[in-house]
Give the backbone structure.
Amino acid sequence: MLEPLGSDLWFADGGVVSFKGFDYPTRMVVVRLADGGLWLWSPVERTAALEGEVRALGPVRHIISPNKLHFLFLGQWQTAFPDASLWATAATIAKCRELRFSVALADDPPAEWKGQIDQFYFTNSFFMNELIFFHRASRTAIIADLSQTFSETFLKRHWPWWMRPIAKLSKMVEGWGYPPIDYRISFRNRASARPKLRELIGKHPEHVVVAHGEVVRTDGEAFLRRAFSWLLQ
Protein backbone atom coordinates (compact mmCIF):
# COMPACT_ATOMS: atom_id res chain seq x y z
CA MET A 1 0.00 0.00 0.00
CA LEU A 2 2.86 2.39 0.66
CA GLU A 3 4.38 3.68 -2.57
CA PRO A 4 7.79 5.39 -2.52
CA LEU A 5 8.18 8.82 -4.11
CA GLY A 6 11.70 10.19 -3.91
CA SER A 7 14.05 9.93 -0.97
CA ASP A 8 12.49 8.81 2.37
CA LEU A 9 8.92 9.65 1.36
CA TRP A 10 5.98 7.31 0.76
CA PHE A 11 2.27 7.78 0.20
CA ALA A 12 -0.73 5.50 0.61
CA ASP A 13 -4.26 5.82 -0.73
CA GLY A 14 -7.15 5.25 1.63
CA GLY A 15 -10.84 4.87 1.06
CA VAL A 16 -13.41 7.33 -0.21
CA VAL A 17 -15.08 9.74 2.23
CA SER A 18 -18.13 11.95 1.76
CA PHE A 19 -18.00 15.73 2.17
CA LYS A 20 -21.01 17.95 1.51
CA GLY A 21 -22.60 15.05 -0.32
CA PHE A 22 -19.67 14.43 -2.66
CA ASP A 23 -17.14 11.61 -2.64
CA TYR A 24 -13.48 12.41 -2.10
CA PRO A 25 -10.49 10.07 -2.31
CA THR A 26 -8.06 10.14 0.62
CA ARG A 27 -4.29 9.90 0.78
CA MET A 28 -1.61 10.01 3.48
CA VAL A 29 2.12 10.72 3.35
CA VAL A 30 4.89 9.13 5.41
CA VAL A 31 8.31 10.78 5.71
CA ARG A 32 11.30 9.22 7.45
CA LEU A 33 13.22 11.95 9.25
CA ALA A 34 16.98 12.06 9.78
CA ASP A 35 16.66 10.50 13.25
CA GLY A 36 14.80 7.51 11.78
CA GLY A 37 11.44 8.57 13.17
CA LEU A 38 8.37 8.75 10.98
CA TRP A 39 6.26 11.82 10.19
CA LEU A 40 2.66 10.91 9.20
CA TRP A 41 0.66 13.51 7.28
CA SER A 42 -3.13 13.36 7.10
CA PRO A 43 -3.42 9.66 7.97
CA VAL A 44 -6.12 7.69 6.19
CA GLU A 45 -8.25 5.04 7.86
CA ARG A 46 -5.98 2.69 9.75
CA THR A 47 -5.93 -0.97 8.77
CA ALA A 48 -3.78 -3.75 10.15
CA ALA A 49 -2.00 -4.10 6.80
CA LEU A 50 -1.25 -0.39 6.45
CA GLU A 51 -0.15 -0.08 10.07
CA GLY A 52 2.19 -3.03 9.55
CA GLU A 53 3.84 -1.38 6.55
CA VAL A 54 4.26 1.87 8.46
CA ARG A 55 5.79 0.09 11.46
CA ALA A 56 8.26 -1.63 9.15
CA LEU A 57 9.67 1.77 8.15
CA GLY A 58 10.48 2.92 11.67
CA PRO A 59 8.94 4.36 14.83
CA VAL A 60 6.08 6.81 14.36
CA ARG A 61 7.00 10.02 16.17
CA HIS A 62 4.75 12.68 14.59
CA ILE A 63 1.17 12.68 13.29
CA ILE A 64 0.10 15.81 11.38
CA SER A 65 -3.24 17.32 10.38
CA PRO A 66 -2.87 20.07 7.72
CA ASN A 67 -6.30 21.65 8.29
CA LYS A 68 -9.50 21.22 10.25
CA LEU A 69 -11.09 18.93 7.64
CA HIS A 70 -8.34 16.33 7.91
CA PHE A 71 -9.11 14.93 11.34
CA LEU A 72 -11.25 11.83 10.78
CA PHE A 73 -8.60 9.22 11.50
CA LEU A 74 -6.24 11.05 13.83
CA GLY A 75 -7.63 9.27 16.88
CA GLN A 76 -7.08 5.83 15.34
CA TRP A 77 -3.41 6.52 14.74
CA GLN A 78 -2.88 8.20 18.09
CA THR A 79 -4.31 5.09 19.75
CA ALA A 80 -1.98 2.87 17.73
CA PHE A 81 1.05 5.09 18.45
CA PRO A 82 0.42 6.71 21.87
CA ASP A 83 4.01 7.95 22.15
CA ALA A 84 3.78 9.95 18.92
CA SER A 85 3.18 13.71 19.04
CA LEU A 86 0.00 14.94 17.37
CA TRP A 87 0.35 18.26 15.52
CA ALA A 88 -2.26 20.47 13.87
CA THR A 89 -3.40 24.02 13.21
CA ALA A 90 -5.14 25.93 15.98
CA ALA A 91 -8.50 25.40 14.25
CA THR A 92 -8.10 21.63 14.28
CA ILE A 93 -7.02 21.62 17.92
CA ALA A 94 -10.11 23.62 18.86
CA LYS A 95 -12.31 21.24 16.88
CA CYS A 96 -10.89 17.98 18.23
CA ARG A 97 -10.79 18.56 21.98
CA GLU A 98 -10.88 14.84 22.72
CA LEU A 99 -7.39 14.37 21.22
CA ARG A 100 -4.01 15.19 22.80
CA PHE A 101 -2.12 17.74 20.69
CA SER A 102 1.29 19.34 20.88
CA VAL A 103 1.50 23.08 20.23
CA ALA A 104 -0.32 24.49 17.21
CA LEU A 105 1.60 24.61 13.93
CA ALA A 106 2.09 27.80 11.93
CA ASP A 107 4.75 29.04 9.46
CA ASP A 108 7.83 28.07 11.46
CA PRO A 109 8.53 24.32 11.62
CA PRO A 110 9.19 22.89 15.08
CA ALA A 111 12.71 21.75 15.89
CA GLU A 112 11.68 18.13 15.32
CA TRP A 113 11.67 18.57 11.52
CA LYS A 114 13.13 22.02 10.93
CA GLY A 115 15.57 21.96 8.00
CA GLN A 116 13.98 18.79 6.61
CA ILE A 117 10.33 19.74 6.04
CA ASP A 118 9.33 23.35 5.38
CA GLN A 119 5.81 24.57 6.01
CA PHE A 120 3.70 27.43 4.72
CA TYR A 121 0.63 28.54 6.66
CA PHE A 122 -2.21 30.07 4.63
CA THR A 123 -4.75 31.84 6.83
CA ASN A 124 -6.40 33.88 4.07
CA SER A 125 -9.76 32.13 3.90
CA PHE A 126 -12.43 32.45 6.58
CA PHE A 127 -13.53 29.01 5.36
CA MET A 128 -10.31 27.26 6.32
CA ASN A 129 -6.65 27.70 7.25
CA GLU A 130 -4.19 25.25 5.74
CA LEU A 131 -0.57 24.20 6.00
CA ILE A 132 1.33 23.22 2.86
CA PHE A 133 4.53 21.24 3.46
CA PHE A 134 7.69 20.76 1.40
CA HIS A 135 9.98 17.78 1.98
CA ARG A 136 13.44 18.85 0.95
CA ALA A 137 15.12 15.48 0.38
CA SER A 138 12.50 14.25 -2.10
CA ARG A 139 11.60 17.74 -3.40
CA THR A 140 7.94 17.03 -2.73
CA ALA A 141 5.18 19.55 -2.03
CA ILE A 142 2.38 18.11 0.12
CA ILE A 143 -1.04 19.75 -0.19
CA ALA A 144 -4.39 18.91 1.42
CA ASP A 145 -7.23 21.00 -0.06
CA LEU A 146 -5.59 24.03 -1.68
CA SER A 147 -5.01 21.90 -4.78
CA GLN A 148 -7.28 19.11 -6.03
CA THR A 149 -6.55 16.99 -9.09
CA PHE A 150 -9.52 14.74 -9.71
CA SER A 151 -9.15 12.33 -12.59
CA GLU A 152 -11.83 11.84 -15.22
CA THR A 153 -12.16 8.22 -14.08
CA PHE A 154 -12.82 9.17 -10.46
CA LEU A 155 -15.38 11.81 -11.40
CA LYS A 156 -17.28 9.38 -13.62
CA ARG A 157 -17.38 6.76 -10.88
CA HIS A 158 -18.18 8.95 -7.91
CA TRP A 159 -19.66 12.33 -8.87
CA PRO A 160 -23.14 12.94 -10.37
CA TRP A 161 -23.23 13.81 -14.03
CA TRP A 162 -24.30 17.39 -13.41
CA MET A 163 -21.31 18.11 -11.16
CA ARG A 164 -18.61 16.83 -13.52
CA PRO A 165 -18.74 19.86 -15.87
CA ILE A 166 -18.57 22.15 -12.82
CA ALA A 167 -15.43 20.36 -11.62
CA LYS A 168 -13.86 20.82 -15.04
CA LEU A 169 -14.87 24.48 -15.34
CA SER A 170 -13.50 25.04 -11.83
CA LYS A 171 -10.25 23.35 -12.91
CA MET A 172 -10.36 20.97 -9.93
CA VAL A 173 -9.02 18.30 -12.24
CA GLU A 174 -5.83 16.53 -13.18
CA GLY A 175 -3.46 18.89 -14.99
CA TRP A 176 -4.84 22.02 -13.34
CA GLY A 177 -5.27 21.40 -9.63
CA TYR A 178 -7.36 24.38 -8.54
CA PRO A 179 -9.08 24.29 -5.14
CA PRO A 180 -12.89 24.33 -4.83
CA ILE A 181 -14.68 27.53 -5.83
CA ASP A 182 -15.74 28.39 -2.28
CA TYR A 183 -12.13 28.15 -1.12
CA ARG A 184 -10.96 30.52 -3.87
CA ILE A 185 -13.79 33.02 -3.44
CA SER A 186 -13.19 33.21 0.29
CA PHE A 187 -9.42 33.66 -0.13
CA ARG A 188 -8.78 37.25 0.99
CA ASN A 189 -5.68 39.47 1.29
CA ARG A 190 -4.01 37.51 -1.48
CA ALA A 191 -0.95 39.75 -1.49
CA SER A 192 0.12 38.28 1.86
CA ALA A 193 -0.06 34.74 0.47
CA ARG A 194 1.93 35.30 -2.70
CA PRO A 195 5.41 35.54 -1.09
CA LYS A 196 4.86 32.19 0.64
CA LEU A 197 3.71 30.56 -2.56
CA ARG A 198 6.62 32.01 -4.53
CA GLU A 199 9.02 30.74 -1.88
CA LEU A 200 7.53 27.25 -2.22
CA ILE A 201 7.78 27.33 -6.03
CA GLY A 202 11.33 28.66 -5.71
CA LYS A 203 12.32 25.42 -4.02
CA HIS A 204 11.77 23.74 -7.41
CA PRO A 205 9.45 20.88 -6.38
CA GLU A 206 9.69 17.77 -8.54
CA HIS A 207 6.67 16.00 -7.04
CA VAL A 208 3.35 17.18 -5.64
CA VAL A 209 1.23 14.92 -3.45
CA VAL A 210 -2.36 16.05 -2.92
CA ALA A 211 -4.88 14.47 -0.60
CA HIS A 212 -7.64 14.47 -3.20
CA GLY A 213 -6.70 13.52 -6.73
CA GLU A 214 -3.76 12.36 -8.79
CA VAL A 215 -0.14 12.58 -7.65
CA VAL A 216 2.10 14.84 -9.75
CA ARG A 217 5.24 12.79 -10.30
CA THR A 218 7.31 15.09 -12.51
CA ASP A 219 7.77 18.84 -13.07
CA GLY A 220 5.99 19.78 -9.88
CA GLU A 221 7.20 23.35 -10.17
CA ALA A 222 5.32 23.90 -13.43
CA PHE A 223 2.27 22.22 -11.97
CA LEU A 224 2.22 24.57 -8.96
CA ARG A 225 2.41 27.59 -11.25
CA ARG A 226 -0.72 26.35 -13.02
CA ALA A 227 -2.52 25.19 -9.88
CA PHE A 228 -2.04 28.57 -8.20
CA SER A 229 -2.32 30.82 -11.24
CA TRP A 230 -5.57 32.13 -9.74
CA LEU A 231 -3.54 33.41 -6.78
CA LEU A 232 -0.33 34.50 -8.49
CA GLN A 233 -2.11 36.81 -10.97
Summary: Residues 111 and 225 are 30 Å apart (CA to CA).
